[in-house]
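chain below, 230 aa
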Amino acid sequence: MGVSRGWRIAAGVLLASSASAVAGPDWTEVNDAGQQLFTAQVPRGTAGSLNTISGVLGGTGVEPDFADCYIIRIVNPSIFSATVTTANFDAQLYLFNISLPGGAYGLLANDDQSPSNNLPRFTNVSTDGTNVIVALPGDYMIGISGTSFHPLAPSGPGGATGRIFNYANLTEVSGPDGPGGFNQLTTWSGQGEFGDYIITLTGCDFPIFPAPGTAGMLGLAGVVMARRRR
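prediction:
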C-alpha cells in the first residue's frame, strides 16, 4: 500500500483580514474574496453560528475571479459539514488547514456529492483511503471554484507545481493525495467558471481573528491524518 505518514496538528496561525461586518448568522461576500490565505475573506458576526456563505465568481479585474476563499471556525468537528446548496456553475469545494506556518495546506475536497448531484459536499472525513479526519475545533480555510480550476502546491525541483488533490472519481471526498499534497497552496490553475453560489455549513461559527490590516494568532486548528500514498 506504500508509505504511511500520520500527524496531529494543533497550533495558531497568522493571517490578515479584509472583510466587513454584517449582522446576522450568515455572510455575503464583500467585494471579492481572495484565492490565498492572506487574501481570504474573514466573515464577521456575533458568536452563535455561521450557517451560510454566499458569493459570486466573476468580475473583470486584473486576475480573473475563478476561486473564493473564506476563514471559518469549526466548533464541533463531529457534526461539521460544508455543502454547496446553490450554484449556477459546476463547483468544487475545498478545506485547508491554516495552523502551520507559511500558508494553507489541503485537507479535503469534493467535486460531486453523488452521481446525480454535482453540488459538492464533505463532512470531517475523507472517503478515498487517505484517512483524513478533521478532529479538533479551530479556524480553517474553505474554498470554492469551478470544477476545472484546481489548487496547486510545489511538487518538485525547478519550481514545478502539482495538484493538491487527486480525484480517483468525482464523488470521492479526497484527501491531499496529489503531487503537491504535502505542501502549501501557492496558486490555482485551469479553466475557471463564473456564477453565484451558497455554501451551507453545520458545526461552524465566525472565526477568531485580529483587527483588519493586522496579523495575529487565530485559535487552534486541528487535523488527524494518516495518509497512504497511492
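DSSP finds no helices and 18 strands in the chain. The chain has one domain: 4-228.
thats it, cya
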